[in-house]
Amino acid sequence: MSQYTHLSNDPGPIVADLRSDTVTKPCAAMRKVMAEAEVGDDVYGEDPVVNQLERTLAERLGKEAGLYVSSGTQSNLLGMLAHCGRGDEVIAGESYHVIRYEAAGASVLGGVALHALPVAGDGGLEPDAIRAAVKEDDSHHPVSRLLSLENTNYGRAVPLARIAAAVEAGRAAGLSTHLDGARFFNAVTALGCTERDLADPFDTVSVCLSKGLGAPVGSVLLGPADLIAKARRLRKMVGGGMRQAGIIAAAGLFALENNVTRLAEDHQRAEALAAHLHALGLGEVRQATNMVFLTPAQGVNLGALAASGIALSAPAPASRMVLHRNIDDAAFAHVLEAFERLAERRGAA
Description:
Layout: E1 16-17, H1 28-35, H2 48-61, E2 65-69, H3 72-83, E3 88-93, H4 97-100, H5 105-110, E4 113-117, H6 127-133, E5 143-150, H7 160-172, E6 176-181, H8 184-191, H9 195-199, E7 204-208, E8 219-223, H10 225-237, H11 246-258, H12 263-280, E9 283-288, E10 291-296, E11 310-311, E12 319-322, H13 329-348
Parallel strand pairs: 1-11, 3-4, 3-5, 5-6, 6-7
Antiparallel strand pairs: 2-8, 7-8, 9-10, 10-12
Helix pairs in contact: 1-11, 2-11, 3-10, 6-7, 12-13
């Protein structure tokens, strides 16, 4: 069962949506800057807000250029296609999104092979496994071209030392490097590092603006100017050219300026929720950054929470609960109380 499967087909009015941080909605201030954004034609390179967003994020991460795209899936796809030709290979973690949740787009559209490696408990890849996966120069094999890492992975912020060891192994074997940074700023927050610390080891980085940062849409692919130019052409080929996109790019700029530092609040609430669930004895609990995973104990019916307006993903076997900017103090208190009532009903059964 997918982590994206909803626990209830008819959840009713939702008070707290914990399925994902992709459900965040723009605040009034973000909507205002969107409505007032100056726009132009981005395909012509004339949208000033898109250009500013690309420059801003490139400067913050220490990359030469950026490309604004519709989604993290598209950003990862363009990154892989820009690095790889037909018959080339991407090495990535078996549970990473580019392998498991992005419809094998690089293979379908680019003829790129995907080699899945086991993922360690901290979300990283073992250097020895990377070295072993790189193919020898033989016509029977694809050409190993790219190492794609992910941070965070299922909420886990992979330590910088682990990233460095994996990248070193890849580079020694001649691989380029890409980071799926869908929750890049959650990783930075958890690791206590700078944005450049996390971005520096990679040739390209994909950063999502529509998860914890709260923008309604969009990701940015960062990297060398020549590779980003290639990705821009590829964006057009896959139907992703945009016109007056400054309206949504303005939301991304607002998010970068206003919503990065507050991610620590989501992490703190996730930690508090995990402690609460553990104390209630509702099952096996794991927490990392803004995510809590609950594998319910025998007799715990998470589906009953829908009646309290709590939207959850279905256990697979764990139900993922994601804290985000739309879970404020009141909504969070409601969540805690709903789980208390669930525990009471279980005890009375």
